[in-house]
């Protein structure tokens, strides 16, 4: 695993926290002289919902998508493994989904971080130094981006609506909450390798997590409601939302999972 502290293309981050109504001037269109410049030499951390949408769009399963298009990095100050977009080995270190003439070829299913740009979100920035329990927005100002010279005014909220991130944030909410919580814990508190692996698999590999639930001893150890099982059997979004609850339970002992004590006692003997 590469540690994200080695990131040589770290953007300049203005340390100003923006509120939902903070206004800024920006626009991005095909006629910008910098068109697609922002899709090279980048660090894009993927969210669980990003991976669900992208792999579906590309008609791949999780294993295939993760192998072909991602690499694992450790989230700074948390030691948590996250999937990031693997750039091409070309001179410009391009995103695999950018084409000079058309831009992003998976535009409707582009990652959350790409949608937010030029805004950054603290919980999705693995180079961000410190945070508290609250998530926040900030401006990512990169010299190559001419969008700041344009005359269109947005608020943080109107930009989020325009770029379709509201749904992404809703689905990822439990996950970003875990990241923010973990960032707020002293870095000396380490996760076990097994917990890190579980965090990564639940976050990004829906087929593997589904097999864990339905094909391991999980359901003999925990009583899960029939309705929940029905939902997570075929629905990837319901599955990852269940996964976030499970992660909070095993990482922070938060929430409740009804354990079958009889089975647990027998197994412990
Ligand atoms: S660099 Fe900025 S203005 Fe240029 S294409 Fe990217 S986001 Fe748009
Ligand atoms: S996924 Fe699309 S928008 Fe994001 S960096 Fe790649 S080409 Fe650009």
- The level of helicity is 40-55%
With helices defined by DSSP (H or I, 4 residues minimum), what is the helix count? 11
Number of strands: 11
Distance between the termini: 37 Å
What do the pLDDT scores average to?
88
- Give the spatial strand order of the biggest sheet: 1-3-4
Q: Which class best fits the helix and strand makeup?
A: alpha+beta
Strand percent estimate: 5-15%
Tell me the overall shape. Answer: elongated
Rg (CA only) = 20 Å
Q: Name the assembly state.
A: single chain
Order of helical and strand elements: EEHHEEEEHEEEHHHHHEHHEH
Instruction: Provide the domain count.
Output: 2
- Largest sheet, described in full? 3 strands, mixed
Ligands in the model, by name, code or SMILES, are:
iron/sulfur cluster
Model regions low in confidence, pLDDT < 50 over at least 5 residues: 1-14
Structural account:
- The protein has a three-stranded mixed β-sheet with strand order 1-3-4. Strands 2-9 form a two-stranded antiparallel ribbon.
- It is an alpha+beta fold.
- The two termini are 37 Å apart.
- The protein is elongated.
- It has two domains: 2-176, no CATH class; 205-268, no CATH class.
- It is 41% helix and 13% strand.
- Helix 5 runs parallel beside helix 10 (236-252) and helix 6 runs antiparallel to helix 10.
- Residues 28, 32, 34-38, 117, 144-147 line the site of one iron/sulfur cluster.
């Amino acid at each position: 695993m590469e540690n994200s502290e080695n990131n040589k293309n770290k953007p300049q981050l203005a340390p100003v926290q923006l509120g939902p109504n903070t206004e800024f001037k920006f626009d991005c269109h095909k006629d910008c002289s910098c068109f697609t410049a922002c899709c090279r030499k980048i660090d894009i951390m993927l969210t669980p919902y990003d991976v669900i949408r992208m792999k579906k769009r590309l008609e791949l399963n999780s294993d295939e998508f993760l192998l072909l298009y991602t690499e694992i990095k450790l989230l700074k100050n948390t030691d948590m493994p996250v999937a990031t977009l693997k750039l091409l080995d070309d001179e410009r270190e391009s995103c695999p989904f950018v084409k000079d003439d058309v831009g992003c070829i998976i535009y409707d299913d582009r990652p959350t971080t790409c949608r937010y740009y030029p805004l950054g979100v603290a919980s999705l920035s693995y180079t961000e130094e410190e945070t508290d329990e609250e998530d926040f927005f900030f401006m990512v100002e990169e010299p190559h981006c001419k969008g700041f010279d344009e005359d269109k005014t947005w608020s943080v909220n109107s930009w989020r609506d325009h770029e379709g991130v509201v749904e992404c944030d809703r689905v990822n909410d439990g996950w970003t909450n875990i990241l923010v919580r973990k960032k707020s814990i002293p870095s000396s508190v380490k996760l076990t390798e097994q917990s890190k692996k579980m965090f990564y698999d639940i976050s990004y590999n829906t087929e593997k997590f589904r097999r864990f639930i339905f094909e391991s001893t999980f359901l003999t150890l925990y009583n899960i409601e029939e309705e929940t099982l029905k939902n997570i059997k075929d629905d990837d979004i319901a599955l990852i939302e269940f996964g976030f609850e499970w992660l909070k339970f095993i990482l922070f002992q938060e929430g409740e999972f009804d354990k079958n004590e009889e089975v647990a006692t027998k197994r412990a003997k």
